[in-house]
Amino acid sequence: xxxxxxxxxxxxxxxxxxxxxxxxxxxxxxxxxxxxxxxxxxxxxxxxxxxxxxxxxxxxxxxxxxxxxxxxxxxxxxxxxxxxxxxxxxxxxxxxxxxx
Length: 100
What we know:
By secondary structure, the chain is an all-alpha fold. The chain has 1 helix and no strands. The radius of gyration is 42 Å and the shape is rod-shaped.
């Protein structure tokens, strides 16, 4: 082999090695970027899940409070209705006594 052909082969080999290294670095960099992006997305998803869980817990507590309030209102309404009936009956009894 001549010096010129050795230099040509060496240049081709060096170019190939550099190209493969650069391509490997780009692929590795792209992989690392994708991995970092997936990690960040996972963290955001986890935060969103926690936020939703907190929101759900608050809504459940609010529902329980409202159900309790509704039950108390129903009981009060039942008592008021009973008192109204008793008052009506008493007034009717007094009216009947007065007419006799």
